[in-house]
Structure formats: C-alpha cells, structure tokens
Amino acid sequence: MGEFKVHNGKFFEYMPSGIQCMSYSNHTLAVGRTDGSIDIWKVTEESWYHQKTLPGSEQRNVQCLAWVKGRLFSAGLQGNITEYDLVKLSPKVSHFYGHGFWCMSASHDKSRLAVGCEDGCVRLYKILEDKGVVYERGFQFQKERIVSLAWHRSGEVIVTGSINNIRVWDVASGQVKQRITTQRLRRRQEVVVWCVTILQDFTIVSGDSQGLTQFWDARTGVSLQSFNSHRAGIFALCVSPNERSVYTAGADPRIVTFSLASTNDRNNREEWTKAWSSHHHFHDVKALSVVDDLLVSGGTDTILRSTALHRLGSDSNSQIIPKRRNDLPFPMKPLPDSPRGQPDSVSATVQCRTMETWLHRERCQRFCRRSLNLIASGPSKLIEIRSKSGEQIICSALSTCGSWLAYSTVEKIRLYKVTLDPLVLHKVPLIPDSVLPSHQLKFTPDLSKLVSVTNQCSIQLVTLDDLHPILFHTFEPMERPISNMAIPSKGSVMAVTDESGLIKLLNFKDPSKEIQTALPRYKPIISMALNYSGSLLFVVYSDRSMNEFSLHQQTYSKMSPKLAKFCTLQWLGRKQSIVHVEYNQTNDSQLILMDNTSLVVLNKQKRPPDDYEPFMMFLLEQERS
Q1: Taking a C-beta distance cutoff of 8 angstroms, is the pair 150, 116 a contact?
Q2: Any one Gene Ontology biological process term (predicted)?
C-alpha cells in the first residue's frame, strides 16, 4: 500500500453552530443555524449530501425558514424577512419591518407568509412573483408575543401559540375565532406554547414549556387529550404526511411519537396514544421535520440526525413510528491546501469569521497499515485574520509554498502576500472591481494565478502581483452553480462540475484554447480529483458510486470497469458521503477517500473484494486520537 505521513491536527478546535430551525420541500432540506448560516441538503433515494451553505451575518438572525415554490425565505428577531439567491449564496432581497419575528409559515397555496411578532400581532405578507414580499395586513393586536403559528390546509384559519393561550384566527377578518387557555401544572406559572400545528380535521396539537403535549378541538376549544410527555419544555413538533402520527421534542431531549389508534368501544372511536419514545440527542432539540420516509431532528448539539420511519400496516391509516437512526455529518468548510514536501509545513484553518495559519516543524514519523504515529512537535500559530463587519468566510486558499493567502466573503475577495522569515503579512489592496466574490478558491501550482469560482457560475483567473493583481480571464458561465473544482499539480487543464453532474474542462494557462468536453453525465458529483499529470479524473457521485475518466481520450479509463466492482453493497450502503478524494501524487493507482468519520485508501491494482473488509485498506475512526 505504501507509507504516508499523517498529521492529526488537534490544535484546531472547531466550534460548530447549533441548529435553530428547518424547512423541507421538493427533496431539499434547509437547516438554519444559530450563527445565521443556512445549510442546504439534497435528499435523494440513494443518499443525502450537503449541497451548499448560505453564509450568515451578525446583522441577520435566522429564527425560522420557509420554502415557497423553490424560493427560500427566512425571518428573525431583528425584524427582517429575507429571500435568498441560491446561486450567489447571498440575500436576494431583505425587508426590514421593525418587529421581531418569532415564527413564520407559508400558506398551502404558497401565496402568502404569516409571521408571529414580538408585539403580539400576526402579520400577513404577499409573496411577489419576481422577488421578495410586500406587507398585506395585520391581525388584531394581543398582549403576548406570538411564538408559534400554523396555517390550516384550507387557508382560512391560522392557529397561534403565545403565553398561556392558543388562538384560532379567521384569516379573512383578522379576528380571533377561538381563544384557548392552556392547562397549568403549577399555579401562577407562565406557560409558553412554543410549538403548535392544526390538522385537516381541525385538531390542534400544541407543545408548551411545561412539557405537555395537548390535543384540542379548534371549533369548540375543548381539550381532547393531554400528555405529560417531556420533563421540560417542548420546542419542536411535526406531523406525518397522513396526519396519523405526531412527533415532539424539546429540552429533555427525547423524541416522542403519538399515534392515532382505534379504541375497543362500540363506536370504534380513535384516540391519540403515546406510541414510542427515545433519546436521540444530548442537548435541546430545536427543530423536527418529516423528510420523505425519515424523521430529521437537530438542536443545540449541532448534530443533524435522521431516523427511518417504519409504517405499521399498509393502508393510508397506518401508524408511522421511528425505527433506525443515522447521524448526518456536520458540513465543515473544506480546509485550504497545505504545502507538500517541505521541511516546515504551513497549514490554514477556517472558522466562521476567522482564518489562521499554523507552522508545523518536521518531526513526522511514518504511518503504516497497522500503526499511527503523529507529529510530535506542537504547531505554532503564525497569522490570525478576522473578517470585517461580521461577514462570514465562505472559502479560502493557501498556496503550495505558503506565500499567498486568500479568502472570500459575500462582498469581495481579499488577498495577502506572506513572508515567513521574517514573518510579514502584506495585504494586496488593489484587487479589480471586476473580480467577483467567490465560492471556491485555489492557487495554481506555478503560483501565477488565483482561480476563483464566482457567485455567477463562472470561473475567473486572477494574475498574482504584490501591488496590482489583474483579472486575466473570465470563462463562460455554466448553466448551473459550480459545485467542485480540481487542478492538477502538473499540467494546464482543470476540471469543474456543476450541481447537475456536468463536467467541463478548462485550460487555465491559455484560456483561448477551448476544450470540447464529451464526458458522460450520471448523477451529481460530490467530490473529484485529478492525478499529478492531469490525465486522469476521479469522481465520486451522490450515490457513493465511483468512476475514473481519461481526459486525453474523453471517455472512461481502463480502470473504470474495475472500480464498479469495488462498489459493493456495503460500500454503497455507507451512512457517510465522501467529502474529499485525492490521488497519491507519486502513484496514480492509489486514491485517498475521506468522509467525516473515516479515511480510506483505494488501490486500483488490487483485486476487487468479495466483501467489504479487504477493500478498506485502513480505517481511521473518528474516536481514535
């Protein structure tokens, strides 16, 4: 297999952000986090994969999310409703109304948004066809803030939760049709209805700060059933598609399932029963969502967890309860490339609004198949750069020699020249205005250019200079947003792919030489790599299958049929998606594949395995340190 030098970077203390809210529509899940960023997950029959992240801002809080016909909206306590550009990964339009928004929901016909406000008012906003929303009207003011709300399927009724009360509103008049006082377990205790929904048969389901899950008749305001289901407050609630199962979670942090079951009396009535309960998280659960045949949960512990839903029975009235659990990886920003083959290596790490560079002294030992020896000497921090105005860093790059440093926010790219001995950081001030903000950055191996994937689906080449960088060339934009980019260590042709899986080859040394690309398209590509000479392209698809292409012949490589045999059922059934792939720069027959929990070396010269274990050349579990 060969020997490799491995560095376990314990110096990097990554602090992920907790999950605040979720919204699902059309095989796409949006996850809002406490730092204002929004993760976009694509849901397919084979697997889940992280598609993109919309960076957050200190000026924009994400309290709730809503999908409307493929358009994503958010609202927050700072009083703004924002629509996002999913191509540029930035706000398309943001309206500030001066009221803190606690909750938001779209009507079932997707024509209006209803928001619950800090001042006790429910406000309706009409969704414009081109972009943004416009204020329509407000309902009758109440004394208490509105912390939860839901539309009835008819669009004629909205139910809201506040302090000590649940209200049923007539949408046409904006008046209260029914006011329900919540049950109190202790006298003089303030009860906050953190989550509420209304079923098609006008049954209201609520979860409150006492840990009570209650079922109400929306027409009469009568309590149907009440369950002391949680030890602390209930923060999240969702309903199965057939409305016969309800899932709740909160601070304790159990996920509880309630199912509608027939009784044994003569009238054959149906009642809600507590069907299932399990601990899936370690801290508060803030969001729940039913995604196809999965129950997805997330909260303070930052973990997005999916649980397979098992249907009891085959008819439309069957109960649906959770059965199997799976953790989805936290979508970390890819780390910038580190210099290779140098006695003193420099690496870069990126957190939300900070980029750091570290110096590692050469005290490495070799890593073989059954032993792991890590760098003994401690790293030293060289540089720490903080972005301005609270902007989050979208992407970053470090040159192979450590002399150039770049990062991008939603506003612009910033470029730095670094001298290590003595340590000097020089900001390059005159970047042309025509250089657009970037989603991915890489330096070419000869350090002549900075390659940028722009927020307009194009590739830009910037000639490096200490004082006056020049925009060298802008390639024609692709039809879909660019998801991956690969540059060889030697050669002049780079590969890019968009979200649909289309692969395009570009000459970054002489852009005038157009390359006609005829590589086959299969599924979205989540990771890819070029070998040292740039003659082979290895891709990993969203269903975890793999392929290798010969760029000279514009077709599958000789090894590609053999790779299909490596994709055993055990490999395709892995819970984690590959997030990075890399050729061994000295041996094209070896590839290194990584996900969030393991490190795999694939040797193409080996015989395809009969089972899973021989294929795993070595596995580095996340728990090993």
Answers
A1: no
A2: maturation of SSU-rRNA from tricistronic rRNA transcript (SSU-rRNA, 5.8S rRNA, LSU-rRNA)
pLDDT of residue 210: 93
Report residue 361's pLDDT band, with 50, 70 and 90 as the boundaries.
low
Residue 327: its H or E element: strand 319-328
Q: Minimal CA–CA distance to 458: which of 416, 413, 506?
A: 506
Rounded to 10 degrees, what is the CA torsion of 388, 392, 394, 400? 60
CA gap 5, 11 in Å, rounded: 17
pTM here is: 0.86
For the segment 140-161, the average pLDDT, to the nearest whole number, is 94
Rounded to an integer, what distance in angstroms lies between the CA atom of residue 17 and that of residue 531?
35
CA dihedral 267, 196, 207, 104 (to 10 degrees): 160
Q: Please, what sign has the CA dihedral across residues 75, 244, 274, 263?
A: positive
| Closest residue by Cα to residue 539 from 505, 489, 587, 575 | 505
CA distance 104 to 147: 9
Q: What is the structure's pLDDT at 4? A: 64
Report how far residue 484's alpha carbon sits from residue 530's, in angstroms, rounded to the nearest whole number: 12
Cβ proximity of 551 and 595 under 8 Å: no
Q: What is the pLDDT of residue 614?
A: 38
Res 620: pLDDT = 35
- Show Cβ contacts of residue 420 under 8 Å, excluding neighbours closer than 6 positions: 344, 346, 359, 382, 402, 403
Contact residues for 220 (Cβ-Cβ < 8 A; gap 6+): 178
Pairing of β 234-239 and β 380-386: unpaired
